[in-house]
């Protein structure tokens, strides 16, 4: 079967990958991907294993191998070994910098009437009462205050 993405390592790349695998001081995923690239290498002196052989030998799925081949050919060795960095966090931040500052100001002010100190629930309710934010959970208040300490 003809492969769409053929891995051909240069001598220097092959040496770096072999050194990475032999030292073994890296993330397991990175080491596995390095081993896959080494076995998939079809340059002179490379084993050039088929995807099925690599999958059986390294206990990885065929789709992992195919995706790794594609990433290596299109984006290079580093993209194939490293995880893709997120462009933005999975959940956007609830409070911006100004709102955080107002939270800290409320926290440093006199506690609510009849209370000795602020609780997370009281702070969350106070932020909504002051129309700093539409709604907020006490856990978000806790994490924000923990971050600003």
Describe the structure.
This protein has 149 residues and is mainly alpha-helical. The chain folds into 2 domains: 11-81; 97-148. Helix content is 58%, strand content 0%. The chain has helices at 11-23, 28-40, 51-58, 62-75, 77-81, 97-108, 120-129, 138-148. Helix 1 packs antiparallel against helix 2, helix 2 packs across helix 4 and helix 7 (120-129) packs across helix 8. The longest helix has 14 residues, at 62-75. The chain is rod-shaped, with a radius of gyration of 26 Å. The model has no long low-confidence stretch (mean pLDDT 92).
How much helix, percentage-wise, in residues? 55-70%
Give the mean pLDDT. 92
**Model regions low in confidence, pLDDT < 50 over at least 5 residues:** none
Number of helices: 8
Q: Using only CA atoms, what is the Rg?
A: 26 Å
SSE map:
Elements: H1 11-23, H2 28-40, H3 51-58, H4 62-75, H5 77-81, H6 97-108, H7 120-129, H8 138-148
Helix pairs in contact: 1-2, 2-4, 7-8
Please give a handful of descriptors for the protein shown.
149 residues; mainly alpha; 2 domains; rod-shaped
Short description:
The chain has eight helices and no strands. It has helices at 11-23, 28-40, 51-58, 62-75, 77-81, 97-108, 120-129, 138-148.
